[in-house]
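Table S2 (continued). Query chain:
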Amino acid sequence: MPAHKKKNVIVGQSGGPTAAINSSLAGVYRTAKDRGYNKVYGMIHGIQGLIEGRYTDLSEHIQDGLDIELLKRTPAAYLGSCRYKLPEICENKELYEKIFDTLTKLEIDCFIYIGGNDSMDTIKKLSDYAIVNGYDIRFVGCPKTIDNDLALTDHTPGYGSAAKYIAASIKEVIRDGYSLETDHGQVIIIEIMGRNAGWLTAAAALSKCEDCDGPDAIYLPEIPFDCDAFIKNVKKLLKEKAFVTIAVSEGLTLADGRYVNELSNEVGYVDAFGHKQLTGTASYLCHLVAEKCGCKTRSIEFSTLQRAASHLASRIDIMEAYNVGGAAMMAADEGDTGKMVVIVRTSNDPYQSTTEVKDVHRIANDERLVPREWITKDGTYVTNEFIQYAKPLIQGEVAPIIVDGLPRHLYKPGFHDLL
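Corresponding output:
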């Protein structure tokens, strides 16, 4: 019986961008070409763009060699991202028929989706529909999220570079703070991304080294936040030192389930997945500290910089992101569907990892939190176990390609007209 003639691949990016997501795209594209696929299509703004008929042949925009290296060093989602929640199949069969009509027209063999938890929900639903309705298309998820909250994988591409940026920036903030004298003490509160999982905020502890004391306290969303206990701790710290640095997750939650930022703002915007927009946690806590402690305060939000700072990307992260993209493409090529590639740590010193594939049904709509035993008993810092886990992930640098004094990214005017 003749072997199946390979046709085409389609790849999309979804959710919050990272400094490493395009490295995974490069891995998918290069591996698909090496394995003999005809065309590699890119969805413009993920599954939402595909539904709208927006896609492009990536070979018209990406060449081998320098383009691949530039793509690996380019932050954000080159294809454009989305936060689109597919309805349940029983709720809108017509929508799924439309998607699969497009995939059939494009002669798609393999569908690769690079994203986080919500993106794996898309892979789950599409693979289920394909199996039930007899479509010979393989659907494989490629993990990506700075939140590091996907189940079954040791960590996710994007996290290491974001953690590296956070730790380096906190070192700089602390150095700046010590240079300014104040009569009544100063408290700087740094707000770090993390809705329910505190992996990013925990990375603040990596700034503690022989030339930096690191933050004085770290508050994660895994532990219910107590405003009175927080103020008590701040007062204690101010008695010990004139300059205090505290890292907090944007998703700090009170015992009654409210986000801390809701104490000062009514959070209006809610996305398709029911996620409230979070901002202002550090600002609220700074006002609280100023009122209760009578000292100077400053709030800092790293915001988008946490996921866009490719100039300080982790070499381990970029390398693994590329390998994971290639592994996702290989898994689909070899017949896997309804799966996600995971990273398996095989050694911590020296750090080494490999990849496996796991059933996406065990991953989608789950959320991996920082283990309680990696947080101190009083909930104000992380333990050495977390440090040992995270430190290998920030190692090494990927030198930017500098043009006119600035990092060069992959930018094609004709392609960006599509976005």
